[in-house]
Amino acid sequence: MDYSKMCPKFESAAELLGKKWTGLIIRVLMGGPKRFKDIKEQIPDMSDKMLTDRMKELESLGVVKRTVYPEMPVRIEYELTEKGRDLEEVTNSIQAWGEKWM
Amino acid sequence: MDYSKMCPKFESAAELLGKKWTGLIIRVLMGGPKRFKDIKEQIPDMSDKMLTDRMKELESLGVVKRTVYPEMPVRIEYELTEKGRDLEEVTNSIQAWGEKWM
To answer: Where is the HTH hxlR-type domain (chains A, B) (predicted)?
Structure first.
C-alpha cells in the first residue's frame, strides 16, 4: 500500500464505516437477516431514528437490502448484500485487534 | 465470531477507529514517523485543532507515540506504537474493500 499519499477509495470507505453505529450494525447483520427490533436489541443505546437513518444510508450505498414480507402484520427484514458481506474481513480484523488490545 | 450478541471489545475498538479522521490518521502513520504538517498534508480538510485532539486521544490510548527532539527549532514526531501498527490488518482490509466497492 502506498502510504505517501491518501487514497480517495480508502477515504470514502473509512468515512462510510466510521459513522457512529455503522460498524456495530454491520457486525449484527453478519449474523444473517434481521428485523429492526433484533438489531436494536444488540445495540440498545442507539435511537430508533439513528437506526432508521443508518439503514436508509446503507441501503442507498448498496450495503444492505431491505425486504418487505406482505404478511399480517407486515414483516420487514434487513440483510447484507454481497458488498456488505464482503466487509467481513474488516469486522474480523477489528474484532481481532479489539480482543488483543482493548 | 458469535454474531448473536454484541462484543464489548469490538464495540470499543469500532468506536475508537470510527471517530472522524482517525482511520485516515492511522493510515498516514502506517508510512512511518510523521510530523504534524506531514499528516496535515495528506488530510488537508482536517483542522489543526481536530488533528491535535485526535493525536492526544490516540496517544492516551497507547496507539500513537509522540517524540520531542530538542533541536532548534524543536522537532516533534508522531509514530504508531506496536498497538497502532497492529491495526495494519484493519487498514488493509478497509483498503481492499474500498478498492473493490467504492
So the answer is: 7-102
Residues in chain A: 102
- Beta carbons of B97 and A27 less than 8 Å apart: no
Domains and CATH numbers, chain A: 8-101 (1.10.10.10)
Q: Quote the minimal CA–CA distance from B69 to chain A in Å.
A: 23
Q: Can you say whether the dihedral through the CA atoms of B24, B25, B28, B30 is positive or negative?
A: negative
Instruction: For chain B, 102 residues long, give each residue's pLDDT as a single digit of tens.
Output: 788 889 999 999 999 999 999 999 999 999 999 999 999 999 999 999 999 999 999 999 999 999 999 999 999 999 999 999 999 999 999 999 999 999
> Predicted ipTM?
0.92
Beta-carbon contacts of A28 under 8 Å, excluding residues fewer than 6 positions away, are A34, A38, A39, A42, A43, B3, B6
